């Protein structure tokens, strides 16, 4: 279930006003074996800890775990639950800094995203570079699954 984005910045100043604001959390999203297997098929990463439930049951994790990159790849869609950038003519995912896979994500977990705009830097007339700290949480797990800095470029 996707909710309407809570924030809709339409100007550089709107983005600057959001620096330091906690966004979220999003709705919970289930990560089941079918989603893990589909990601393995998409990426070609079929390591047994992700796709072999019988073998993974005997691992220290006790089950399969999602790929770390699965959690990272979900963050753009999660961020859309929290913020819409449709007020800008152009928006571009420019990359990530400081990506950390802090805790394994067991199959059948529920995850969500909390975000915080950490900086907005003007790069030209009506153009900005936005850094957002992304934290993926899993229900019942004290540590974050993932923490990363997302870098976006936006222009009017």
**End-to-end Cα distance:** 30 Å
Secondary structure tally: strands: 6
Provide the low-confidence segments as ranges: none
Question: What is the SS-derived class?
Answer: alpha+beta
Count, helices = 5
Q: Could you say how many structural domains there are in total? A: 1
CATH hierarchy: architecture = Roll
Largest sheet properties = 6 strands, antiparallel
Q: What average pLDDT do the residues reach?
A: 93
Q: Per the principal axes of the C-alpha atoms, what is the gross shape?
A: elongated
Which key phrases capture this entry?
single chain; about 160 residues; 6-stranded antiparallel β-sheet; NodN-like; MaoC family dehydratase; MaoC-like_dom; HotDog_dom_sf
Ordered list of secondary-structure elements with their pairings:
Blueprint: H1 12-17, E1 22-23, E2 29-31, H2 33-43, H3 48-51, H4 53-57, H5 68-82, E3 90-101, E4 109-124, E5 127-138, E6 146-155
Antiparallel strand pairs: 1-4, 2-4, 3-6, 4-5, 5-6
Description:
The chain has 156 residues and is α+β, with helices and mostly antiparallel strands. It has one domain (12-31, 66-155): Thiol Ester Dehydrase, Chain A (Roll), CATH 3.10.129.10. It is 26% helix and 35% strand. It has five helices and six strands; from the N terminus they run H-E-E-H-H-H-H-E-E-E-E. It has helices spanning 12-17, 33-43, 48-51, 53-57, 68-82, and strands at residues 22-23, 29-31, 90-101, 109-124, 127-138, 146-155. Strands 1, 2, 3, 4, 5 and 6 form a six-stranded antiparallel beta sheet that branches. Strand 5 and strand 6 (146-155) form a beta hairpin. The radius of gyration is 17 Å and the shape is elongated. It starts with 11 loop residues before the first helix and ends with a strand. The mean pLDDT is 93. Belongs to the enoyl-CoA hydratase/isomerase family. Pfam families: MaoC_dehydratas. This is MaoC family dehydratase. Residues 19-136 form the MaoC-like domain.
């Amino acid at each position: 279930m996707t909710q309407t984005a809570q924030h809709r910045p339409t100007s550089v100043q709107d983005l600057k006003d959001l620096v330091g604001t906690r966004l979220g959390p999003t709705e919970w999203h289930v990560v089941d074996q079918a989603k893990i297997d589909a990601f393995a098929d998409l990426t070609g990463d079929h390591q047994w800890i992700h796709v072999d439930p019988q073998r993974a049951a005997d691992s220290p994790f006790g089950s399969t775990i999602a790929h770390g990159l699965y959690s990272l790849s979900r963050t753009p869609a999660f961020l859309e639950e929290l913020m819409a950038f449709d007020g800008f003519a152009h928006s571009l995912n420019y990359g990530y800094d400081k990506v950390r896979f802090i805790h394994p994500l067991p199959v059948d977990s529920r995850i969500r995203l909390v975000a915080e705009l950490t900086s907005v830097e003007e790069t030209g007339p009506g153009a900005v570079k936005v850094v957002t700290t992304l934290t993926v949480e899993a229900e019942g797990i004290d540590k974050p699954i993932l923490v990363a800095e997302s870098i976006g470029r936006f222009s009017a």
